[in-house]
Specification:
mainly alpha
Length: 236
């Protein structure tokens, strides 16, 4: 039986493959730049991961206002996701203690990704949620490697930062490994939620297209029925 943490979305659309290529490029950059510095890698990852939830919540909040319809909890769910990712970031800042250069790089990465994702979410929400779902798959895998490094002794299993103990209500003797486990579980949940959002939007789009096709076919069907009735009368 497959471990739920190992689950990955099976690509179906051309946009899914483009997304996979883009994420592969990001992973190559992270592997090259950070190598075994998992704490620093987590800081950059969480800086990016905290953006989509806030962008999505703002977009759907404004959409709800314009349509004057309830959002069915989507705004709150995405805001909670953004807050959760922000706490991941603040936790790993305590662990990795990034340098000034790394902080500048993180800021530039966040600004660039904010612009990219805002445009993506505005024009194609389904693809944007799918992108985040697949990005979270990489996050789950990245934190699994982090755990392996701790278990093998490559990374010291230091005491958990106090901010992590407070947020996840961990015991006083909690270690870094406990924190990484909690973060990985969070990322797996975000993965599933974003893929579910993309699946729901795919269904909505498919239903709209089917309805549009039905409406377009209706006049033709009426004309065909009239022609058939005339032919039957003439034959009779």
């Amino acid at each position: 039986m497959q471990n739920p943490l190992d689950w990955k979305y099976k690509k179906k659309r051309l946009s899914d493959y483009f997304t996979a290529v883009a994420i592969g490029g990001l992973r190559l950059f992270a592997d090259t730049f950070f190598r075994e510095r998992h704490g620093h890698r987590a800081v950059v990852l969480e800086t990016v991961a905290a953006v989509p939830g806030m962008v999505g919540s703002m977009h759907n909040h404004l959409l709800s206002l314009r349509r004057m319809k309830h959002d069915n909890g989507l705004v709150r769910m995405l805001m909670d996701e953004a807050e959760n990712e922000r706490m991941h970031l603040l936790t790993f800042v305590e662990v990795a203690k990034p340098s000034l250069l790394e902080r500048m790089m993180i800021s530039a990465t966040q600004i660039a990704f904010l612009g990219f994702f805002t445009l993506a979410y505005t024009f194609n929400k389904r693809a944007a949620h799918r992108f985040i779902g697949m990005l979270e798959e990489e996050a789950v895998e990245s934190y699994t490697h982090y755990l392996d490094a701790i278990d093998s002794g490559k990374i010291e299993n230091i005491d958990a930062p106090q901010i992590a103990k407070d947020y996840w209500k961990l015991p006083d003797d909690a270690k870094l490994r406990d924190v990484v486990l909690m973060v990985r579980d969070d990322e797996a949940e975000h993965r599933d939620v974003n893929h579910a959002c993309a699946d729901k939007l795919e269904l909505v789009i498919a239903n709209r297209r089917a309805e549009k096709k039905r409406m377009q076919q209706t006049p033709l069907e009426k004309s065909a029925r009239k022609t058939l009735r005339r032919a039957q009368k003439m034959a009779g």
